[in-house]
Specification:
The protein is an alpha/beta fold. The protein has a single domain, classed as Rossmann fold (3-Layer(aba) Sandwich). A 6-stranded mixed β-sheet has the order 6-9-10-3-11-12, with helices on both faces. The longest helix is centred in the middle third of the chain and has 16 residues. The protein is globular, with a radius of gyration of 18 Å. Bound molecules: adenosine-5'-triphosphate and magnesium ion (MG).
C-alpha cells in the first residue's frame, strides 16, 4: 500500500519568495506527525500548500497522496478525496449555517468516495444524527448548527468547529494548523479526545503546534522541527519536551550539512 502522504524535495514560493526550501516527509497510514518550529518558519505555508491554496506555488518537488500526485488537483478535489485542513485562522462565512456547510461538504466527499460518483447523498435525518453525535463528542452546544459559520464565534469556538468538520467529514489526511492555540484547558482536552477518537489505521495526521501540551493528549509518532523552510531535526515525542526546555536557538546553530537530515 502506498504511503498516506509522501512529500519529496518540496520547494514553495509565496508572492515570488521561496518559503519552503526542500522538505521531505512521509506519513504512513495511522501515523501522527507533529510539526513545530519558530514563527514564520513555514508551517502554515506547508499546510496551505497541501490543501492547494493557489497563492502557494510549488516550484520543485512532489506531493503524493496515496501514491498519486496532488499537484494538479484543485483544493476542492483534494478535500473530496480526504485531505482536510483545519485552519490556523478560520474564516467566517456569513449566510451559510454550520449545518448546511457540513452537509454540503459531506455530500461532496461521499460522492468522491463512492464508485463513479454513484454514492447516495446523506439524508437529512441521517445527517442530523451524525452531526449532533459529533457535536456532543466535542461538547459543542447544538445551537451552533443553526449559526453562520464562524460568524461571531470566539477563538476557541472556531477551533472546535474546525474539529467538528473533521469529525463529520472523516478525512484520511488531516492537517491541523495550531488547533490548540486559543483553546482553554478544558477545551484542549475535549478537542484532543475528539481527534483521538478519530485516530485509526486510515487516518494520517499532521499536527502543527507551538506547545508540547497538546502532545500529552495526542501522542505523536514523530516530531519534526521546521526552521527557515527546512526540517532541522526530527525525532520522537521527547523532542517536543527538549524544545520546551531549550527553545529553538540551538537548532539554528546546527550546520547546514546536518540540516534536513533528520539526525
Ligand atoms: N500569502 C502570503 N503572502 C506573503 N507572505 C506570506 C504569505 N504566506 C506566508 N508568507 C510568508 O511566509 C513566511 C512563513 O509563513 P507561515 O505562515 O508559513 O509561518 P508559520 O511557520 O506558520 O508561522 P506561525 O508560527 O507564526 O504561524 C512568513 O515570512 C510569511 O510572512
Ligand atoms: Mg502558522
Amino acid at each position: 500500500m502506498a504511503d498516506e502522504l509522501s512529500i519529496r524535495n518540496l520547494h514553495v514560493q509565496v508572492e515570488g519568495k521561496e518559503i519552503l526550501k526542500g522538505l521531505d516527509l512521509i506519513v504512513r497510514h495511522g501515523e501522527v506527525h507533529a510539526i513545530m518550529g519558530p514563527n514564520g518558519s513555514g508551517k502554515s505555508t506547508l499546510a496551505n500548500t497541501l490543501a492547494g491554496h493557489p497563492k502557494y506555488v510549488v516550484t520543485d518537488g512532489e506531493i503524493l497522496y496515496k501514491g498519486e500526485s496532488v499537484l494538479a488537483w484543485k483544493p476542492d478535489e483534494r478535500a473530496r478525496r480526504g485531505i482536510f485542513l483545519a485552519f490556523q485562522y478560520p474564516m467566517a462565512i456569513p449566510g451559510v449555517t454550520v449545518a448546511n456547510f457540513l452537509r454540503t461538504a459531506l455530500n461532496a466527499r461521499r460522492k468522491a468516495v463512492g464508485s463513479n460518483g454513484a454514492a447516495k447523498a446523506v439524508s437529512i435525518p441521517e445527517f442530523r444524527k451524525l452531526m449532533l453525535q459529533r457535536m456532543e463528542m466535542l461538547k459543542l452546544d447544538p445551537t451552533f448548527a443553526a449559526r453562520y459559520l464562524n460568524d461571531g464565534f470566539s477563538g476557541g469556538e472556531k477551533k472546535r468547529v474546525e474539529i467538528l468538520q473533521m469529525a463529520v467529514l472523516n478525512p484520511e489526511m488531516a492537517i491541523l494548523d495550531e488547533t490548540d492555540s486559543g483553546l482553554d484547558i478544558d477545551a484542549l482536552r475535549i478537542v484532543s479526545e475528539g481527534v483521538n477518537a478519530l485516530r485509526g489505521p486510515q487516518l494520517g495526521v499532521l499536527l502543527i503546534t507551538h506547545y508540547q501540551r497538546i502532545l500529552n493528549y495526542i501522542k505523536p509518532d514523530f516530531v519534526h522541527v521546521l526552521v527557515n523552510g527546512k526540517f532541522a531535526i526530527s525525532g520522537g515525542p521527547e523532542l517536543a519536551l527538549q524544545l520546551e526546555e531549550k527553545g529553538y536557538d540551538w537548532l539554528k546553530e546546527i550546520s547546514p550539512e546536518e540540516m534536513g537530515t533528520g539526525k
